[in-house]
Amino acid sequence: MSLRSFLYNTLKADPDVASFVATRIYQSSSMQAANVEKPFLVFHMGNDTNEMLADEHTASRQFFQVYVHDEPGDYQQIEDIVRAVKSALVGKGSPEDGVITTRYLETSQDLDDETLRTIFNYIRFQFIRSN
User: Fold this and answer.
1) Cβ atoms of 18 and 12 closer than 8 Å
2) Which residues make Cβ contacts (< 8 Å) with residue 39, sequence separation at least 6?
3) What is the pTM of this model?
4) Cα(86)–Cα(109) distance, integer angstroms
5) Domains of the chain from N-terminus onward
6) In a designed cystine with 120, which of 42, 69, 83, 85 is the match (CB 3.0 to 4.6 A)?
7) HEC states along 86-105?
């Protein structure tokens, strides 16, 4: 597997996440249309950083974001989905993918996307990886 597959499969397999978005989980470049049933998730892979935290350990950090989109209006459902996504990912690892653990970093302020006609928040995480 890859990090992207690990992330997608972890989100897809979580019953709480699935209760909100079913299989509407997209890698950013895989969205083919702006007309998607809501709510849905979009994930983006970020920087892969070796911070040289210790000479004898070569762990790196792979940052990523999960965007939670929904119909304009109340952010309550987005907040519920954010909690489900955090619960599905925080502390998760995958030895075969070199993921030691997954850390939560932050949740964005309330945002809106005029193109997708949604309101959304993004959640920033990092995979701590062994190289």
Assistant:
1) yes
2) 20, 21, 24, 68, 69, 70, 71, 77, 78, 81
3) 0.91
4) 16
5) 3-129 (3.30.2000.30)
6) 69
7) HHHHCCCCEHHHCEEEEEEE
Query: How far apart are the C-alpha atoms of 72 and 57, rounded to whole Å?
Result: 46
Query: How confident is the model over 36-80, as pLDDT tens digits?
Result: 899 999 999 988 777 666 666 667 889 999 999 999 999 999 999
Q: Is 120 helix (H, G, I), strand (E, B) or coil?
A: strand
Q: Are 28 and 13 in contact (CB under 8 A)?
A: no
Number of other CB atoms surrounding residue 58 within 10 Å: 12
Closest among 50, 11, 49 to 27, alpha carbons compared? 11
Q: How far is the C-alpha of 45 from the C-alpha of 89, rounded, in Å?
A: 15
Checking if the pLDDT of 121 tops 70, the result is yes
Specify the 3-state DSSP secondary structure of 10: helix
Rounded to 10 degrees, the C-alpha dihedral 99/83/42/48 comes to -30
CA 52 to chain centre: 25
